[in-house]
Design a protein that fits this description.
Blueprint (H helix, E strand, L loop, with lengths): L2 H15 L3 E2 L13 E5 L3 E11 L2 E10 L13 E16 L3 E16 L22 E15 L3 E15 L10 E15 L4 E12 L5 E10 L2 E10 L4 E14 L4 E12 L11 E11 L1
Antiparallel strand pairs: 1-3, 2-3, 2-15, 3-4, 4-5, 5-6, 6-7, 7-8, 8-9, 9-10, 10-13, 11-12, 13-14, 14-15
Length: about 290
Amino acid sequence: MHFEKKILFTVIIFLFFIRVVWAGTGVLADPDNPSSGIEFYGVPSAKIGEHISFWNLYLGAFLESRNEKRFSQGILPNHNWRGFASLYYGHAVLDDDVQKLSFYGGFEHESAHPTMGFYEHNDSAYEMIYDNLYRNINLNSMLLRGRFVWKKIIEMAIIFDYQFYFCSKNTPELHNTDLSQSHGLSAGFDIAYSVSGSWRVFLSVFDRCIFRGYAERDDDIYFNDGGSVVTRTVSYPVINNVNTVVVKAGMLYEWKAVGRSVGLYGKMLYGNIFGFVDSRERRLQFYCGLELLH
């Protein structure tokens, strides 16, 4: 059974057998924020996920699938698969009617791969990771997070993260399956304003950076050379430097009957896409979407 299926099965068990409180610990613009929904950026993307808390533990997980624009399209997104799971322990050091300051520590796992056997001939080095060889990304990290929430006329949340990556690899262009370690920082904020009893408008910004690790491996890497793709045997980082900035804005409807919010939003992403993508590639993409979240 794939790891992503195990994640989903674990979430279902918690939903049925544990009395939980629905709670978020991050910001809305974080692509690793567990939720369920659909996105469209010229092609579709879908995600099924949940975030639950019990005692001082916070469990999040999702399974995500998306399409790439240049490939032949099907009815359902199935070119790239990404699984995510997190388990944090949190403690509030300040908690009153207006403000709350919490600290979290825990573990995150993210893995991504293309549909097995999927192959498309192309003329870009960035897309040669679809070459029928086994390639993936695998990120395991210990996370420390500070989160401050302030509620008055507006509601604001600010987070700052440090992550230590171990047994990780974010370079699918490196066919070698060795893993390594590195560090990362991220930060973000949400601002929301109530326009009626159940409706809020929001703006969210998030930035994640993973720093290049020291470990390198010799492998055959695809490069663009003029108008063609060439292969060179080089020493290549197991963990490469990547950065992603996301800006997300829209409306949230508080669905009190099920203890959830429904979000309708637009989003801009610049940098390295979360999931299975060449670590050297930078994209600017615009999205619209609908999601179910806390």
